[in-house]
Amino acid sequence: MLAKVYVTLKNGVLDPQGEAIRHALGSLGFDGVNGVRQGKVIELDLADGTTEAQINDMCERLLANTVIESYRIEIA
Amino acid sequence: MLAKVYVTLKNGVLDPQGEAIRHALGSLGFDGVNGVRQGKVIELDLADGTTEAQINDMCERLLANTVIESYRIEIA
Fold this sequence. Notes:
Chains A, B: It is found in: Cytoplasm. Chain A has helices at 16-27, 52-63; strands at 2-9, 33-46, 69-75. The longest helix of chain A has 12 residues, at 16-27. Chain A has a single domain (2-75), classed as Mth169, Chain: A. By secondary structure, the first copy, chain A, is α+β, with helices and mostly antiparallel strands. The radius of gyration of chain A is 16 Å and the shape is elongated. Strand 2 of chain A pairs antiparallel with strand 2 (33-46) of chain B, so a sheet runs across the interface.
């Protein structure tokens, strides 16, 4: 089974990488880019029968830093 | 308007970061993790009226390295 985990910075947490992208888009002539935030997608190829609770556990313990990041699990 | 761009490595391109995550999950006792690939999500807050063609252009010129990465645009 395939699961996708989306990890994004929580609101209010500074995102210098996103800010750099926003600036670079402006330099390339793209107007109207008000804000950019960058996050991660982690695609997991898991053994069948892995529960969502287990994936949640993976996120809490390794994939996301829950102090500053939030995550969303999508099971395909 | 809000657009999300998902950038992932193409199949066949080595992903050492994903491999490191797979190994770390194994070390933490999570069995049955067959493969992990890591990609990026870029959330763009754009002026209303920005076309998908323009977002496509942003991807081709800055957000993705189309030699090794593919991208998918999602407009919210």
